[in-house]
Design a protein that fits this description.
alpha/beta, two-stranded antiparallel sheet, 36% helix, AB_hydrolase_fold
Length: 222
């Protein structure tokens, strides 16, 4: 198992962190690509630590960057198997970070973009430890939706944000995810942004900050 690591930003307020937000990047990027979200959410979460781990594999679709699993074969079962394997290493990293910071599992939130969104949703709904406070998914998809009811371990609140002009991961992927999550009894909010392509805009960032603030306020021990 590859040991994950990546850039970190400590609590804006200083001192020991009270929450941990883990940022999961997309295909062909790395942790440095998403750690820039931390300063934008730190005003809402001054006592949160942020970490953006690099995915475990070199990207096999370009000359640089990392991937959580290969997308050369996009059959749903193959992608689900890739996410399942990657989730083992991700969960080990999450457990280690929480232990290092002396935080309970309920003090954790996951936020992912594109393939990182797929990982955040897959791992966040199946974490064998304490449930995360929230899962934020930007411009991604819900893998293994057909097995979710049987594999669901917890129901953290989920925020889905997706651009309606996304030509990389169509917005229909998040609309389908929203339906599947609601059917499984997972509390979900969705924000669909007219004209937005494959990216995160200010409205999506603000929605994420609001979700994180509410979730951590409601989470025991966070």
């Amino acid at each position: 198992m590859v040991l994950l690591d990546g850039p970190r930003i400590g609590p804006q307020a200083g001192g020991s962190p009270r929450q941990l937000v883990v940022l999961l990047h997309g295909l062909g990027a790395d942790g440095a690509d998403l750690i820039d979200l931390a300063p934008q959410w730190a005003a809402t979460l001054p006592h949160a630590a942020f970490v953006a781990p690099d995915a475990p594999e070199p990207c096999d679709m370009g000359p640089y960057g990392r991937q959580w699993f290969s997308l050369q074969d996009r059959r749903p079962a193959v992608m689900a198997a890739g996410a399942r394997l990657a989730a083992e290493g991700l969960n080990a990293f999450l457990d280690a970070e929480l232990a290092r910071l002396g935080l309970p599992g309920t003090a954790l939130a996951l936020a992912g973009f594109s393939q990182g969104c797929m990982m955040a949703l897959y791992a966040g709904l199946r974490r064998p430890a304490a449930p995360a406070a929230a899962v934020l998914g930007y411009s991604g998809a819900l893998l293994a939706a057909e097995s979710l009811a049987a594999e669901l371990v917890c129901r953290p609140p989920v925020l889905l944000v997706h651009g309606e002009a996304d030509d990389i991961v169509p917005v229909a992927a998040s609309r389908a995810a929203e339906q599947s999550l609601r059917a499984a009894g997972v509390p979900v909010e969705a924000l669909y942004r007219p004209g937005l392509a494959h990216g995160i805009d200010e409205a999506g960032l603000l929605a994420g900050a609001r979700m994180l603030g509410r979730a951590f306020a409601a989470a025991p021990g966070a």
